Amino acid sequence: MLQIEGLTMRYPTGDTALTDVDLTVEQGQVIALIGPSGAGKSTLIRCVNRLVEPSAGTIRLGGESVTALGAGALRLMRRRMGMIFQEYALVERLSVMENVLSGRLGYVGFWRSYLRRYPQEDVDEAFRLLERVGLDHMVDKRADALSGGQRQRVGIARALIQNPDILLVDEPTASLDPKTSRQIMRLILELCRERGLAAIINIHDVPLAMQFVPRIVGLRAGEVVYDGPPAALDAARLTDIYGEEDWSGTTRDDDPAEARDAAHKVAASVDAPEIQRAAGS
Question: What is the model's pTM?
């Protein structure tokens, strides 16, 4: 589904955010990106949909080169990439339904979207998605009246109404309490399974990633230093990703399941808020 080869991103300042990253995501596969602040996680996601322009390398979605597309073709390609944002990116004064339908802006003409005259099939699909994410009773509620978890559910529905091939998810639980975070992660994984969607989830909460996501990719200083199952994410590998740390009581090499459970106890040690750069991670 998604193939990244030799992806490199350098800022005009000379700082390097990503260095020669290779990554393949199969259809229907969900991966979690973990790593310290400034590791390049958000930059990688933004390079995939070219919100950030890579300095080198190639990105292919379904065999089609994303990096070679001109502006018009890129707009069409972005229909196939559903984006779920950390800060929700909702229009506060609009209703839940209107925010979800904004995911169809790439498909309808300017005047239809300006006048909010969406095709009936789009409205019907929005109702179905809102029912699926548990917000069908809030279709007319303004976005600024929603809780954080409800806002994120609106963002998920908005991404899905694009009918994308892949979801790009940037810190979906960063502003949520632990219970709501688990609900949102469970919902994203369920929807990906139901629709056969691939997804890349940038997440700081390592225990949450280990609990829900079957493949973990660890970035450090813009390079991939781990790519594998959560069960193999032991103390040595966490040190490769995050640097020296006392991981005793966090993981045990002889019992991956127990390691995953114990990792919750030290979530704070790897759960610092990400420092966003001007153009990405």
Answer: 0.82
